[in-house]
Amino acid sequence: VREAAAAVRELREQRGWSQLELASHARVSRSFVADLESGKPTVEASKLLDVFQAFGFEMALRERESGEVRW
After folding, report:
1. What does the DSSP 8-state code read for residue 41?
2. For a designed S-S bond to 63, which of 18, 24, 68, 70 qualifies (C-beta 3.0 to 4.6 A apart)?
């Protein structure tokens, strides 16, 4: 979660968005964004995906050994 927290904060700041603006784009609460950026370990996975989708990212699964990607 800490790596995700740093990535979210960096992406948000690059876009010049406040936490409230990101929350609006991702359809989550501002307190969720604050918890996520602070590295809270119990954030809801589906909301985390919503945040990354708000930045225009898609999530895929990559097998560690083979590197095969599944959508």
Report:
1. T
2. 68
